Amino acid sequence: MRGGGSSSSAEPGCKMEGLTLSEAEQRYYCDLFSYCDTESTKKVASNGRVLELFRAAQLPNDVVMQIMELCGATRLGYFGRSQFYIALKLVAVAQSGLPLRVESLNTVKDLPLPRFVVSKNEQESRHTALYSSDADNPASYSGVIPPPPGRIQVKKGSVSHDAVQQRTSTDQQESTSPVVSPQQSPPTSPHTWRKHNRHPSGGNNERPLAGPGPFWAPFSEAQPGSSTSSDPIWSGHSPPPHQENWVSFADTPPTSAILAMHPASVQDQTTVRTVASAATTNEIRRQSSSYDDPWKITDEQRQYYVNQFKTIQPDLNGFIPGSAAKEFFTKSKLPILELSHIWELSDFDKDGALTLDEFCAAFHLVVARKNGYDLPEKLPESLMPKLIDLEDSTVIPVISEVGEQTGEVGYSSSPAEAPPSKSPSMPSLNQTWPELNQSSEQWETFSERSSSSQTLTQFDSNIAPADPDTAIVHPVPIRMTPSKIHMQEMELKRTGSDHANPTSPLLVKPPDLSEENKMSSSVKFTAGNTVNGYSSSDSYASDPEQIGSTVTRQRSHSGTSPDNTAPPPPPPRPHPSHSRSSSLDMNRSFSVTPGQQQAGVVAYPPAVPPRPQPSQGAGPHVHRPVDAEGLIAHTSTSPQQIPEQPNFADFSQFEAFAVSGVNKEEEDEIEMHSEVLQVEKATDSASSLRVAKADGRVEDKAPANVPTSAGKGTTPLAPPPKPIRRRLKSEDELRPEAEEHTQKTGVIAAVLASQPSIPRSVGKDKKAIQASIRRNKETNTVLARLNSELQQQLKDVLEERISLEVQLEQLRPFSHL
Amino acid sequence: LVLLSVICCPQNYPLYIRSVPTENELKFHYTVHTSLDVVDEKISAMGKALVDQRELYLGLLYPTEDYKVYGYVTNSKVKFVMVVDSSNTALRDNEIRSMFRKLHNSYTDIMCNPFYNPGDRIHSRAFDNMVNSMMMQVC
């Protein structure tokens, strides 16, 4: 900005754009500038001596205003050296009677020096009068934001153009010059008000310029009048009227208005005076549409605010407590009421503390207020707290028709400047923003959003990313047999959080399998433990199983299940004892039976219909073979006689086969007996038969069985199968079958052996028969129960098998991978 | 149909008065003044119980033939009184409650303002707007 222009060495860098001054002029101007520059800031406020000077020029006020406009001081708000010189030159031009044109500055040659002839008082009065009408009060805007250099108010063609140039120059000049007296007290506001009056007109216009005309009219009227009258008039135009009028000034953003008066504003005012306000307002509005949102914070401003924020709260993400903010903003010397309103506007989340964004908004509002802008009713959009995903540019409410926000209005803010500029209030923006009401809802909704997002921003850091590792283990109970469920539970306990996908059967299955194995193994152990007494029987069981299998093959019972030969191992039971009461009875019964031959102590539930035992009738005297035949016949008839109990038949067969199997190993007769046993389903009878066989083998068997049974002690028939079942459950089906058979046969044999020997005397046949009948019945019921239990176990095992097969199939594709 | 809204401080002087300027406001002011006694009565009646248990909304304080007076008191003994026109039967208790709630919330917001000294008269523009909207909306 400096350089060029006049080459007066005495004047530091006086670059006059388009202004060539003669030597004398230069000297004169320099002196005048020095005279006016009372503060030695190289800027001359439009108040003070400059106005006096201009008054002294004895020029009509409008001319003076024009001059000020032209020289660009209105835009700047003060007279820089160049402006001052230009103004002086224009004064000279005006005084020469030449039309005021920028070109005249240089074209007019031999212009006499401007004459300033006035008395001091007059000067002052004129000064005030001029001041009142001076559109060019170079306010000592301690504003933070100088006017945007880009602001162009093309009111008058070339003039404006040049003025723009000057403006730019002045702007540049101004931008480099710091704001003066940030702590300007309100009393000076009237001056600045006037300046702001210009500013609005010159700057961004969002408000209709309805007021300026009537506003200036009285001034223009007043000014020509007595200079003294201008004072009252001017004083009469204290803030409220200014506000009213300024309301009409659609205007420069407060930021720009803060500092300087745009030459455009000067132009505006002149045009306003001379031209219909409507046209100007339209023009202004059109121009303003290209301007930014007046409430937008420039980067410099923002930086300044941030620095100020840091002085209070070093942590930029932290809050400024209300008390600290109160102190801070009280320094701005705004009335408490206004500060309160500013607070209400800026404290977005109503938490009594200011975040950085809120603080910037508040600061901005304070600055605006200091520069004369009235506070809006609602927080302007650009001042709203920053949202997470929304930028200022994206958030464009209806209000800001200048929503472009592209052409930044070059707020060359000087961050170093003291905070709230004490520029006086600017015209109220409220009434001039008709869109404010419309956007109120928008803002409200927006506020909701922003408040929510405010909370989002606040909690942003707190939102920890969902831990992907925290897989919520959702045990998927695979509905299987209870044992399966039990296994699953165990698996879950083991694997715990390993299940990312609870529904994945794959994840479940393998542990299932393992669990199963584990379980089965444990069961095995338990079975093994429980089978303490059964171990011996196992050996026996193995034989009968095989035998039984052969026998079963020999005999095929229609109703029997295919498992005749090898009943599936029963599922492992957690406890050896039967859960069913019948098992207890069986336990008791079998515990008793060894001791008592006819022990029918336990009342079995009449589940087993009495099986006709015709053979038995003839049996007793028939000796064993008869009995055996009877039994055999019974066996043959039993399946038909008791069709409704095929299981029984199976079981009986099984047992018979088992027994027979046992016998087979040793004696065929024993096999027969086992058959008989199976048929009868009364181990007692079978054993009795076997015992009654009066075969040494039987006897051999019996004692052999007896000790086993004795060894078993109280081990009943029922429990023995259980370990068999468990074993079957744990192991393959084939293997346990044999064991089961052997066990069962062993048990049966034991039972048989435990039964007391039937007297062989014919005479006691009837009794024996009756006893055997009773015993048979008892064993029938016991065996029936046993059969049902085994059937249940069979089903369970089958289910397990199916599930295992399914698992296998599921695993198969993975095995291929 | 809310004719008058008054916020009174614990010392029973008004912090905020907003009325629909259609009728003789003085009458309403007097009514509110008398209703403050009723409010105090209700507060003291529950004095035995803990403050927390005390319901903030006091309900209909004082019905007359022309209007009804509703009361609401905060835990800090700040009283809100509303005078409602009796002719409006549509104004239910719940609506009154919600209005008091809004008043309370706005009052809290004012309290958050560090520039507000408790006990001062309330000049907040935002508060005015809220009360206006609330009162007008009912009408």
TrEMBL record, chain B:
SUPFAM superfamilies: SNARE-like. Keywords: Cytoplasm, Endoplasmic reticulum, ER-Golgi transport, Golgi apparatus, Transport. The keyword Transport applies. One of its GO terms (biological process) is endoplasmic reticulum to Golgi vesicle-mediated transport. Coiled coil: none annotated. It is found in: Cytoplasm, Perinuclear region; Endoplasmic reticulum; Golgi apparatus. Belongs to the TRAPP small subunits family. Sedlin subfamily. This is Trafficking protein particle complex subunit 2-like protein. It comes from Grus americana.
